[in-house]
């Protein structure tokens, strides 16, 4: 059986020359993790109904691949934007597979809300009027936390930090953001719909800002030199249209599911200090598939500062989140930082793989040996072998710039490591 798996893994073109360009659905969240990569691993190393685990979930590529292939999925991430994007993406995946009409109903209700706020369009709607539904109740059977509980994480922490957002937006643009946020809070939309509307606002905050340069300038806190009015409502409608198109192009593989079984868990979790939690599923994962944070690669948290301000997080809270972010560029300090990064990654990984069932698998996309993080890769491989995990594959893959979300990324090559855990 193992030899069969090794042959199957070796036969895959891990460069994915024919892969579609990464979209980051449904958010611009920076990532270069092609959906085809976890999908190939999931198809080879798991069976329908198995639980897949991605501890650094990002924008939900692993979750999407798992759900579309009939697996269950547990994802975690420290960044609230990633958590929300993955949760909404997973909800739509579940709807497309089992309740496709209701998936479009969600978009129609959010668009109706936009029309109520934007007086310039009168009463016309981009989509036909949607009927009321119990879609949140249906999703509550399959998602943890439930949509109602997840909504509290984003809307009940604290009011948006409007004073922090003010330097980034034209007065009228910020007024529209405030108005839209108020309408979402006071609406009678189902909880999942409100999460979609919240993600929609988050997804367009960068484009609506007056900083026309890259998100890196927002990460570096470079304020715009001139405040330019942007049409918040137009940007939201473009987002809804693109999401509708994405749903239409999503392949549907209907399956027969038991209403007693949860299909996805999406949790906010800090892997810099791993601790036990009651929120984990009782079943152990059959596969851990992830790309751990690279040392000094991207300021994920600072890059999302506008969304985090919108979610009510203060500057001090954002700084605290960065201090928890493994490998954040702002914490880079040469060899010492690389050593600390390697320690944190391996410490977290030891905890993560302990959750995998006996005979299960771990697939890790890590920096190539040519990168300055090569000592961390060596530490990961050494630790896995010390824990008696058998290496099934080590393959260097190229990151094709046509498939990345940011052509300027300095990461050109990665290494895929696949291991099998010892049997009990």
Number of domains: 1
Helix content: 40-55%
Cα end-to-end separation: 17 Å
Q: Low-confidence stretches at least 5 residues in length (pLDDT < 50)? A: 126-131, 402-408
CATH class: Alpha Beta
Largest sheet, in brief, is: 8 strands, mixed
Question: Element order, helices and strands?
Answer: HHEHEHHHEHHHHHHEEHHHHEHEE
Which architecture would the CATH scheme give at its second level? 3-Layer(aba) Sandwich
- What is the overall silhouette? globular
What's the number of extended β-strand segments? 8
Our Rg estimate from Cα atoms comes to 21 Å
CATH topology heading: Rossmann fold
Mean pLDDT: 86
SS-based class: alpha/beta
Strand line-up in the sheet with most strands: 3-4-2-1-5-6-8-7
The CATH superfamily label reads: Vaccinia Virus protein VP39
Strand content: 5-15%
Count of individual helical segments: 17
In short:
By secondary structure, this protein is of the alpha/beta class. It has a single domain, classed as Rossmann fold (3-Layer(aba) Sandwich). It contains 17 helices and 8 strands.
What structural keywords apply?
single chain; 424 residues; alpha/beta; Rossmann fold; eight-stranded mixed β-sheet; 17 helices; 8 strands; 11% strand
Structural commentary:
By secondary structure, the protein is α/β, with parallel strands linked by helices. The protein has a single domain, classed as Vaccinia Virus protein VP39 (Rossmann fold, 3-Layer(aba) Sandwich). 46% of the residues lie in helices and 11% in strands. The chain contains 17 helices and 8 strands. The chain has an 8-stranded mixed sheet with strand order 3-4-2-1-5-6-8-7, sandwiched between helices. α4 (80-98) crosses α10.
């Amino acid at each position: 059986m193992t030899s069969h798996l090794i042959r199957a893994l070796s036969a895959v073109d891990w460069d994915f020359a024919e892969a579609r360009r990464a979209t980051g659905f449904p958010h611009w969240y920076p990532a270069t993790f092609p959906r085809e990569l976890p999908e190939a691993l999931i198809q080879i190393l798991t069976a329908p109904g198995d639980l897949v685990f991605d501890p650094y979930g990002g924008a939900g590529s692993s979750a999407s691949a798992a759900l579309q292939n009939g697996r269950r999925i547990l994802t975690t991430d420290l960044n609230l934007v990633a958590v929300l994007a993955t949760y909404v993406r997973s909800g739509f995946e579940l709807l497309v597979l089992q309740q496709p009409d209701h998936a479009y109903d969600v978009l129609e209700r959010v668009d109706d809300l936009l029309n109520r706020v934007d007086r310039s369009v009168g009463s016309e709607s981009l989509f036909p009027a949607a009927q009321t539904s119990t879609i949140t109740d249906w999703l509550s059977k399959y998602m943890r936390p439930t949509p109602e509980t997840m909504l509290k994480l984003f809307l009940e922490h604290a009011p948006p930090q409007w004073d922090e957002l003010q330097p980034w937006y034209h007065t009228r643009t910020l007024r529209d953001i405030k108005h839209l946020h108020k309408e979402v809070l006071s609406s009678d939309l189902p909880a999942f719909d409100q999460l979609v509307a919240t993600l929609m606002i988050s997804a367009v905050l960068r484009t609506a800002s007056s900083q026309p340069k890259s998100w890196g300038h927002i990460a570096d806190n470079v304020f715009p030199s001139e405040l330019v009015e942007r049409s918040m409502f137009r940007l939201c409608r473009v987002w809804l249209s693109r999401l509708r198109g994405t749903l239409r192009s999503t392949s549907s593989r209907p399956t027969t599911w038991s209403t007693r079984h949860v299909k996805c868990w999406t949790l906010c979790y800090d892997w810099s200090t791993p601790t036990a939690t009651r929120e984990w599923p009782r079943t152990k994962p059959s596969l851990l598939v992830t790309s751990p944070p690279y040392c000094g690669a991207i300021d994920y948290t600072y890059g999302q500062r506008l969304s985090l301000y919108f979610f009510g997080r203060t500057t001090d809270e954002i700084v605290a989140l960065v201090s928890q972010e493994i490998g954040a560029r702002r914490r880079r300090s040469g060899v010492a930082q690389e050593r600390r990064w390697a320690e944190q990654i391996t410490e977290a990984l030891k905890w993560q793989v302990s959750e995998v069932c006996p005979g299960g698998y771990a697939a890790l996309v890590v920096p190539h040996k040519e990168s300055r993080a090569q000592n961390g890769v060596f530490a990961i491989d050494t630790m896995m072998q010390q824990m008696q995990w058998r290496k099934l594959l080590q393959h260097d893959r190229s990151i094709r710039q046509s498939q990345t979300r940011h052509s300027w990324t300095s990461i050109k090559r990665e290494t895929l490591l696949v291991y099998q855990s010892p049997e009990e």
